[in-house]
Write a structure and sequence with these properties.
Layout (H helix, E strand, L loop, with lengths): L5 H9 L7 H7 L4 H6 L5 E4 L8 E5 L23 E4 L4 E5 L10 E4 L5 E2 L21 E5 L12
Antiparallel strand pairs: 1-2, 1-3, 3-6, 4-5, 4-7
Bound molecules: calcium ion (2 copies).
The site of one calcium ion has 8 residues, from loops.
Organism: Streptomyces mesophilus
Protein name: Peptidase inhibitor family I36 protein
Keywords: Signal
Length: 155
């Protein structure tokens, strides 16, 4: 009689969930990879806390020139509140600091290949001043990479 491999036995007995170690499932909760998998194609997302935690502030497949006004995908208290961001679109997202200034002030860019920035506290807007991106994003739009400075990439 052929011996059944142990992992197949486990699968047959306990189902797929039973063979996923609990530690692995927990670890997934502290990255943005699960959020990226669940995200809709063509959209960018912004989250309240780092590593895509704390709730989705907003998501968009278009632009929003003021995350603090009462129009578009980001409104009111959404401005100056994002701590991590995700890009599942087809081009780059450009995020701006200028609060209520319609795509003004310093900026940072997130490419579709980078996919997400888990903690933007150690990223700084262009224009100097060492302004951390956390809790400072106030608008966004989709751009081609040539509109982003070499030092403006979110990682
Ligand atoms: Ca808005
Ligand atoms: Ca701002």
């Amino acid at each position: 009689m052929r011996r059944i491999p142990a992992y197949l036995s486990a699968l047959a007995l306990g189902g797929l969930g039973a063979i996923v170690p609990a530690t692995s499932a927990h670890a997934d909760n502290w990255t943005c990879s699960d959020n990226y998998t669940a995200a809709a194609y063509g959209y960018m997302y912004a989250y309240q806390d780092h590593t895509c935690h704390g709730g989705v502030i907003g998501y968009s497949n278009s632009w929003d020139s003021d995350w603090g006004n009462s129009n578009g995908p980001f409104q009111g208290a959404d401005t100056n509140s994002a701590s991590s961001v995700l890009n599942k679109g087809s081009i780059t997202v450009k995020f701006f600091n200028g609060t209520g200034q319609d795509w003004d002030g310093g900026y940072v860019c997130l490419t579709k290949n980078e996919a997400y920035a888990t903690n933007i506290a150690d990223n700084y807007f262009t224009g100097g001043g060492s302004i951390s991106v956390t809790d400072k994003i106030s608008s966004h739009k989709w751009v081609t990479n040539d509109s982003c400075a070499p030092y403006s990439w979110l990682t």
